[in-house]
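Table 4 source record.
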Amino acid sequence: MVALSPRLLYGLSHRPRHPGNPQEIRCGKRRQAPASRTSGTSAVPVPPAVSVRPRRSSLTKEKRMSATATLRTLLLVGDRFAGFAAQQDVVTVSQFIEEMRLGVYSWDNRPVRVRAGQGVTAEDADLVRDAALLLGLGDRLDLDFRPTALAGRGEAHKHRSCNTLIADLRRDGADLFSATLRVHNDNELLLDHQTGEHVQGMVAVEAARQMFLAVSERYHACRYLDRSYYYVIESMNTDFENFLFPVDATVVYHSLRAELDNPDRLSFAAEISLHQADRRASLTTVTYTAFDAPVIEAKEHRRGRFAVEHTVRNAATRVTVEQPALVGA
């Protein structure tokens, strides 16, 4: 059973006033029960005052304002971000479906607007919609889920799409590119490390790495279609300035240097920043080189052979140090 937040418990324990109450509200004023006038021994009821109904346009406007004021808005995140659900108006996918089943959103007619944050997949969105329809909430649920265009496998250099962090990649200027951060609920970096409310820092580092790969592959290396490039990082430094949370975020790539004339070796320097809620969460500076694959693969193989031979040679000549004998007291 999913624990309900105090906000939702409040909604369960308070019901709207039923129409049969002795006193009811009409046109913004309380209508009192008719007064009595005493004459001798008998009480003569006083006719109620005649109330003037407002014009239809005024009633329509009041109803529209009332509907807007009672709109309930929630932020939906993947189950991996359960820690962030400690925030008011934030629920995980499993929590939201369970609360719908418990009737948390059924006791009144308020519309429910749900904005999908990080970790919510298209399958999750379908589950939420199906549950709402089954429970009679389909006409009141407004689920804002926006599918993203992920960077390709050859751009992000990831075999599994759930590990791709870059989406909606676009060019904003000669040296400026941006993308949407997309964190899947089953991203490899979240499987064994997710504590607190924020997204761990390694997600920001990996997003920066995927961003420079995607930008380089889509906008620079594409000029040499007969080549396949192998990317080598020369330096990479990340400053963490603010917590990153599982809501909308933007990745920005600012090119500092792009040497593209030699097809055998493309050299780059860039700043990659991550922005959320009008604040910069991190800044990564990186220098890297894209080598023609056959050239770097041969060099990599030679270095690998050297590492193997060195390790085997040391293992054969290693001297085992004898442990001192234990002497009784």
